[in-house]
């Protein structure tokens, strides 16, 4: 059972040392006397059942006796309705937080609690790729180094970053590198499911549970059993549903909509959002305890404009993939110097997703003309290209939209573009003074500071 207490990875070289909160249980008597077990996962079950994380073969121990759950306050011991009860330092409890040196009595078996902190030095990876993700930028290699160490653990991940930065690729790469790679990889886009159906999408439903439920249906939690569940755009999850998701993450048990019995699930959760969830917590739009449960290991993917030296590497990999998808024996197009310069100069508000769309269109035109090298890319006018010029803020956006992009992604791209241009213009008007700028715009100073940091803008 681990928790990262260092700043989230991917924001700079200072984030290379992680402090992991760990907890061990030392058997003081019984057949396992002297043996120490490290508590792993978000919910650690103790009992006589062979399915328990710690199996205690003693007649006084119930099949499902108690569990230890990690939350934002520490390690919480909870009795599961055992026959002989669970004692903490001699007193019977229903639930209570563990402290260093405390003794848990599970029937006749006594377990001594040994919480400790483990410091882990995460060095940048020597490789410039992790799964399908590529990058030689120090921030990316730092992320790769972390994932190489944590992919095989059961720790939940929370991936942040702008839309199109590759959060889904990261989730798939972690799944492939994990011990769960043989299991399913299930994706739920929390922003694409109608609010009234998201509960059924996650937990499933029984026949007749609501109008239109003509048959029993498994939800994402059941489908992801023994594998990985990727919750994309978790920030879009309705506040009313967040407590049920929290309970499912804590107990690893779910109940279908309209169902009576609980079902045990064994999953790893990777969540992603282009929103700043810490800010959403401050605004009261996202539960703090759910954020803590998801952000066991927080990772931030940098925007493409923040690692321009990676653009040629990514573009060449994408061109190879585009060629293989168009025809098995197709030859990947080369990138001319003019095209490379244009790629580096563009601001890429849609990040890697936008880069792929541009390369696909350019490759199609080049093949139609019988060319083997990309020269003209047909790059759209970047709405952020003149963000630092306050005179352009009122300019009309281009009339053309990407036909291959959905409404939601198109809206997110333009909202991000407006956000960056407005904040840049606002700071320029006030000489970079965030306090004065926030007062003039009637904004919260902390919120403006976070927006400036998000878009890599300078402010005092």
Describe it:
With 460 residues, the chain is of the alpha/beta class. It is 31% helix and 21% strand. It has 13 helices and 22 strands. It has helices at 138-150, 167-177, 198-203, 220-223, 242-251, 277-283, 288-294, 311-326, 337-345, 351-368, 407-429, 434-441, 445-454, and strands at 17-27, 36-38, 43-47, 54-55, 66-71, 74-79, 86-88, 91-93, 95-97, 103-106, 109-121, 129-130, 133-134, 157-160, 185-189, 228-232, 253-254, 263-264, 268-273, 297-300, 334-335, 373-374. A six-stranded antiparallel β-sheet has the order 2-1-11-10-7-8, with no helix packed on it. Strand 12 (129-130) and strand 13 form a beta hairpin. Helix 8 (311-326) crosses helix 10. It is elongated and about 80 Å long. The chain starts with 16 loop residues before the first strand and ends in a 6-residue tail after the last helix. 37% of the residues are buried.
Layout of helices and strands:
Elements: E1 17-27, E2 36-38, E3 43-47, E4 54-55, E5 66-71, E6 74-79, E7 86-88, E8 91-93, E9 95-97, E10 103-106, E11 109-121, E12 129-130, E13 133-134, H1 138-150, E14 157-160, H2 167-177, E15 185-189, H3 198-203, H4 220-223, E16 228-232, H5 242-251, E17 253-254, E18 263-264, E19 268-273, H6 277-283, H7 288-294, E20 297-300, H8 311-326, E21 334-335, H9 337-345, H10 351-368, E22 373-374, H11 407-429, H12 434-441, H13 445-454
Parallel strand pairs: 3-4, 14-19, 14-20, 15-16, 16-19, 21-22
Antiparallel strand pairs: 1-2, 1-11, 3-5, 5-6, 6-9, 7-8, 7-10, 10-11, 12-13, 17-18
